[in-house]
Amino acid sequence: MKARKLKLIGVVLGAVVLALSVAAEAQQPAKIPRIGYLTGATSDGQSVRIEAFRHGLREFGYVERKNIVIEYRYAQGQPDRVAALAAELVRLKVDAIVTGGSGLTRAARTQQTRYPLL
Q1: Mean pLDDT value across residues 43-60
Q2: Structural domains in the chain?
Q3: What confidence score (pLDDT) does residue 3 get?
Q4: Cα-Cα-Cα-Cα dihedral of 106, 112, 113, 115, to 10°?
Q5: What is the pLDDT of residue 109?
Q6: DSSP codes of every residue in the chain
Q7: How far apart are CA 77 and CA 75, in angstroms?
Q8: pTM of the model
Q9: How many angstroms separate the CA atoms of 25 and 32, rounded?
Q10: Helices 102-114 and 82-91: crossing angle, nearest 10°?
Q11: With 60 as the cut, is the pLDDT of residue 10 above it?
C-alpha cells in the first residue's frame, strides 16, 4: 500500500512538472513598445533632437531595434502632410506619439479620435 502511494505521488508530481513546463513554453514573448515620432521638419533638421531622444531612451534601458521600435514620420516642411502622417501612426497602433510642437500634438490627437486605439 505504501509503495502504491509513493508511486501515485511520483506520477502526480511528474504531471505537475510537465504541466508547468508546457505553460512556460506557451507564454507569449514580451511586447516590444512602438513609439511614433512625428515632426514637421526634415530628417536632417531633426538629427540632433532624434539622437537626444534615443539617448534618453537608452538611459531607461531602451535601445532602438533591440527592445523598442520607433516609427519616424517627417512632414518635410509641408504642414498639410501632418494630419495624414499622424493618421498613419495611429493606424499602426503605436503605443505613444512624440511630437515637436503643439500643432503636431493637436493633429495627432485629432487623428487618434478618428482612429481610436483598441
Answers
A1: 91
A2: 34-114 (3.40.50.2300)
A3: 61
A4: 140
A5: 82
A6: -HHHHHHHHHHHHHHHHHHHHHHHHHSPPPPPPEEEEEESS-TGGGHHHHHHHHHHHHHTT--BTTTBEEEEEE-TT-GGGHHHHHHHHHHTT-SEEEESSHHHHHHHHHHHHHS---
A7: 5
A8: 0.70
A9: 19
A10: 50
A11: no
Measured at the CA of 56, the angle between CA 28 and CA 48, to 5 degrees, comes to 125
C-alpha cell belonging to residue 33: 513598445
pLDDT score, position 31: 87
Amino acid at 27: Q
- The closest of 34, 35, 41 to 82, measured between CA atoms, is 41
C-alpha to C-alpha distance for 112 and 89, rounded to whole angstroms: 9
CA distance 60 to 53: 11
Share of the chain above pLDDT 70, in %: 70
Q: How far apart are CA 99 and CA 86, in angstroms?
A: 10
